[in-house]
Amino acid sequence: MSLAQKLLKIDAFTKTKDDVRIRTRSGGLITIMLLLTSLILIINEWKMFNTIQIIPSLVVDRDRNKRMNMFLDIDFLNMPCDYLYLDMMDESGEIQLDITGTENCQKTQLSDGSCNVKGNVYLNRLQGHFHFAPGKPYQNPVTGQHSHDIQEYGNKNFDHKINKISFDYDEDLTSNNDNKLIQSFFEGSINQVISEPLTGTEVLDGDSYKQYSYFLKIVPTRFEDLTKRPHPNRHKSELLLDGTSHDSKIKKVEKIQYTATTHSKPINGGRDEDHPNTLHQRGGIPGMFFVFDISSLKIINKLQYRMNWYGFILNLLSSLGGIFALYTVLDKVAYKTINYYRLKKDQ
């Protein structure tokens, strides 16, 4: 037996002659369905291939020397600006008094009698707190205790609306076009991940002797783009300030997110209104306090495509093969069913 005859004998892919093939209308309809399904499948696979996913991971934060910038925009609804003070202190012992008197953070008396505080406050990367309190701040020369002169506090209160509180690094992005472009490149991903839980918070208690506390956990976050996508607003031939191509480097941007929990208590002490079994200790001054802590871990959000070219081709071929096998079975079932009823009708 020759080699050709041996190959012919073991052929697993037997062929049917064209003159014995039967074409049916049901087969044509199923073929159209197969083509439409395959087209939809190809489009979906292509969309999935171009889908960018965010993969988070945790690392130890080694950038401990960067100063942070906090942006504030708060309305105090029943507090004159000339009686409102913002002070800050951290665990190093550094104290900043009356920050709203600086150029970066300003108080504005509004026509409805409320006071708006808006601007930037610079923070060391240490645990600490800042607070809004009535009356001029002072330090006790004997005990070193920080306090405020509230003799003229009267019937004012700390009802407030937080228009925005956000954190960023103390960097001048406006002077660097490369940084501005990279920021805009990640804008969609940043909006998807970074949250500002205190933005939009509004408190309308009307209680003059109440202390409001917000506990913030600040988490450094980095976004890294591994897709090597070109920036839509930059020409491919344009170079960065250091002379390298924009697309030859991994684009990254440093951001800060935070979580927040709230607490309020009457400074006169007594039982909690919402939790009768809770007793508040008497003491303190009315005001709005923010206690912040810096996480020692950093979140790395890596942007990358859901699959590579090999995965795309493999998924597409396997899916098309499965669809073709399914419609082949459907065609055989339809053909035999139609023949069965046709023969039964002829009898």
Automatic annotation (TrEMBL):
Transmembrane regions listed in the UniProt entry: 27-46, 309-330
Main localization of the protein described in the UniProt heading: endoplasmic reticulum
Family in the record: Belongs to the ERGIC family.
Role noted for this protein: Plays a role in transport between endoplasmic reticulum and Golgi.
Protein name: Endoplasmic reticulum-Golgi intermediate compartment protein
UniProt-listed Pfam families: COPIIcoated_ERV (PF07970), ERGIC_N (PF13850)
Keyword Transport: yes
